[in-house]
Design the sequence.
């Protein structure tokens, strides 16, 4: 059911519960295929007529895209004034969008962020064209801002309410073993109000396929977002026929699906973007930022992760105009003291080193061994002779 229709039911709920006897409605809705025998039994298990009607209203939003129209048709013969109210009640689209995203667990935007207009338009255009079974992939380095971009893209009433009226469901994936993967799939089944409890990954796939695919599937017009995917097993498990958006730094994770579209996310901000983000964090116009702000941008190559962390740390410190704090973080960047950049509220990783270590741990055995053998020396550092003797 579309979020706007669900909100209409909520606004008229008290009147419907008070006036409507659901006995006749249940027969019509079951005949129309909106309710099955199990749902009817659950509703009839309630004691009073008002409780039965309330239970019907609770179940109805998960019964597919035709549930609202069939409900109105069933009401029309005896309760035409309620139908008139349902069809004319005003529903604010922004409220509907906010409710839909909150229900689906879509994270809030960071308190300070930069809109990347080129990538955002491309992403929204591609989302609007997704068909059942399609995978759209946001690919970029760790810390390039993929998750923020995905969250911003679905905060558009035209894109989301028009193309994904059944919901947008966000899952932060990360690194998962098989047990945790099955746990995530069970959580999704519960979030989608499935009456069936999965017993395995394969069983969970069957349940999700029934929920996402087909004209009577309650979530056929929804979007599943898999954020921060590191394994092809995750993509394979959630390949159940729905429309899926994936954020990943490794394109190999989506090799298991045939219908995929890739959007590349630039690794770093332009200098003007970095300065604008610093400006929003510390409340100072870009032209009044200290020179160290530009130097930090150059040193981290505009990494959205690093710029966000440093901007947040300086804002928390409360001395935004003082060049001392800026110089402190610049010197730590230059000396590679990444442990000084602790977690900032709007960023998902605990720090720069945590993000780096996740990337290293995800390397296959051969590449991880090569990495452990790698030695990097700065230009002005002498290389010991014993290093030159290593073969």
Sequence:
């Amino acid at each position: 059911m579309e979020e706007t229709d669900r909100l209409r039911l909520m606004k008229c709920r008290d009147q419907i519960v008070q006036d409507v006897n659901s006995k006749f409605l249940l027969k019509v809705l079951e005949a129309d295929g909106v309710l099955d025998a199990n749902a009817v039994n659950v509703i009839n298990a309630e004691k009073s007529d008002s409780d039965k009607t309330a239970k019907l209203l609770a179940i109805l939003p998960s019964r597919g895209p035709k549930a609202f129209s069939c409900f109105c048709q069933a009401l029309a013969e005896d309760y035409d004034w309620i139908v008139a109210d349902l069809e004319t009640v005003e529903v604010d689209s922004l409220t509907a969008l906010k409710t839909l995203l909150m229900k689906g667990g879509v994270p809030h935007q960071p308190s300070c962020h930069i809109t990347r207009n080129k990538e955002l338009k491309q992403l929204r255009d591609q989302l609007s064209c997704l068909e059942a079974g399609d995978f759209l992939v946001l690919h970029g380095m760790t810390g390039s801002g993929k998750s923020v971009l995905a969250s911003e893209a679905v905060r558009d009433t035209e894109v989301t309410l028009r193309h994904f009226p059944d919901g947008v469901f966000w899952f932060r994936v990360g690194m998962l073993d098989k047990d945790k993967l099955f746990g995530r799939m069970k959580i999704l089944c519960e979030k989608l109000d499935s009456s069936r409890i999965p017993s395995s990954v394969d069983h969970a796939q069957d349940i999700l396929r029934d929920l996402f695919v087909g004209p009577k599937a309650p979530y056929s017009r929804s979007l599943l977002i898999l954020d921060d995917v590191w394994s092809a097993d995750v993509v394979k498990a959630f390949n159940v026929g729905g429309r899926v958006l994936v954020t990943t730094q490794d394109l190999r994770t989506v090799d298991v699906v045939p219908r995929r579209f890739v959007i590349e996310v630039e690794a770093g901000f332009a200098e003007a973007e970095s300065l604008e983000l610093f400006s929003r964090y510390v409340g100072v116009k870009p032209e009044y930022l200290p020179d160290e702000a530009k130097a930090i941008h150059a040193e981290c190559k505009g990494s959205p992760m690093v710029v966000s962390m440093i901007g947040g740390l300086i804002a928390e410190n409360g001395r935004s105009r003082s060049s001392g704090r800026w110089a402190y973080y610049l010197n730590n960047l230059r000396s590679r003291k990444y442990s000084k950049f602790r977690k900032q509220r709007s960023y998902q990783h605990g720090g720069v080193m945590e993000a780096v270590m996740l990337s290293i741990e995800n390397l296959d055995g051969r590449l991880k061994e090569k990495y452990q053998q790698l030695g990097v020396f700065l230009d002005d550092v002498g290389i010991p002779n014993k290093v030159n003797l290593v073969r």
Observations:
- The longest helix spans residues 178-191.
- The chain has 21 helices and five strands.
- The beta strands are 135-139, 167-174, 222-229, 243-248, 260-264.
